[in-house]
Predict the 3D structure of the following.
Amino acid sequence: MHMADALLSPAVGGTFWAGTIGAIGFASKRLKERLDDRTIPLMGVLGAFIFASQMINFTIPGTGSSGHLGGGMILAVLLGPHAAFLVMASVLTVQALFFADGGLLALGCNIWNLGIYPCFVAFPLIYRPLAGDGRSARRILVASVASGIAGLQMGAFSVVLQTLLSGKTELPFGTFALMMQPIHLAIGVVEGLVTSGVINYVRAARPEILDSPASAMPLAAGVSLRNILAGFTVLAVVTGGALTWFASTRPDGLEWSIAKVTGKRELPGHERGAAASLKGLQEKTAILPDYGFKPSPIEPKAKKEESPPWPTVDAGTSASGLVGGVLVLGLALGIGWAIRAFRGYNRTGSP
Amino acid sequence: MSFDTAYSGIGRLDLLSYRDTVVHRLDPRAKVVATLLFVAVVVSFPKYEVLSLLPFFLFPILVGALGDVPAGFIAKKVVAVSPFAVFVGIFNPLFDPGVVGIAPGVSVSAGWVSFASILVKFALTISAALLLIATTSFPGICRGLRRLGFPALFVSQLLFLYRYTFVLMEETMRVARARDMRSFGNRGTGLRVFVRIVGTLFLRTVERAERIYGAMLARGFRGEVPSMRREALRPSDAFFVLAAGCFFAVCRFVPVPQMVGRLARRLAG
């Protein structure tokens, strides 16, 4: 569920970059206060470990399709939230560069979606209280699955919000949420199962590894109350996910409110779908290039309200635009080809 | 994506980044800043914009050609990561029924135009990111980030991750290959085996980290990875950023394709 540059607006991308950089600074500072040097190579090598494990495919039970590991929760349990967040941020940075997963502007969103929610929300609020002192395999299983689901639900919902706020797509909120949330419910369950499996494996083989972050865990004494609270949190998140189901069948609420805000009651009849509301909003912010496009009479009036970025030109504009576009692209490709040909000639030509 | 192709893809990008060309010799900071600027400007175009985005292809094409990066390799990688953007964008033609004329006598639904805009933006931003790493060594980017003010702890984390990615991936590849050879179809590739593989790999990783830490202490490690590289920006770096910035600004605010098209028509009579 990597967010992509092409779907983002600069404002949304920049905001999440700012938030992410703030979180990186915060985590680095907190970590430095009580860090022994030993943790630095451990974090680095664990990052490489997560990166490599993400590339092993496994068969998802019952479906036959294959999935791969996210890793945020495993890291949070084994390293504590601050170190885990930095490791996740570094893994996603390397992925953005080497695999071009998403892109550079979207990297801020991706670190936010896949790092903040598991490390700073799901781990302290759900995993810790549910797992208690971490001595019971069953509690670890329950805690891992619950926090895995919660983390991915929040991440997926965040992708939906970022996409819609950017306004590059026409997908209605309900439809998009309905597509994203159930898929990530399944992924969250699998992620939780893998997390608990790995933690229990490590606990059986080398229990002392789990002790270092576990020493920072709350004592088991307060668990009963925390359990109840955590139960409510999980319930809230799950019902939140399920509620999008109902929300999507009645998307008119959002639509109606936006129509009210923008004051466009005269929307044409065929545009009354969920697309219309978002479109109204987008058109307020977007500059429709007036060359090349002749808005047909059935288009809403909003497009005309925006003052054109440059004076409207003659009727042949759209044609010259097309011709020019092809020419510019051809010119760019030609320059690239010429440089390559010249280099190749130099390499073979010179002794 | 199978393990082997993913691994060889990373290895190839990494090898490319250690070449010696005009682009490779630029300061990493200059390239990081120019690439971020490029992405921000491209993304800032409104959703129905396609034609004005075309001149921006000159930047990745120039960087790729001058940096001697194989174009087909980059194009393949761009296509390989496109599914999410295509999946989200393909709904535009469905939900945006307004009709626009794109040429005299030809009109399509507005959704197709915005979908095309998403695809063009996707190709531009992703190829720019890939070219950044193909022309700049990863340690170079890390040094650049450090000089740009990123926390030292995060930067050394990136450096460690990079350093051990190749070591751990070879180990992981051996394990994954062994599993695949012992499993038939989907048997043996399930969660149970996967969890044990990851668990074993984790334990090996921790032991490796302990050995690495010992070796680093013996070499005087005090919590930060030092660098002895030249850090001053040269005039050529400043010129590169300035020229790129001017080019982006011109293409952002001047309708270049329209002007070129009108000029061409006038020349043609």
Remarks:
- The first strand of chain A starts at residue 58 and ends at 59.
- Chain A has three domains: 5-250, 254-305, 313-351.
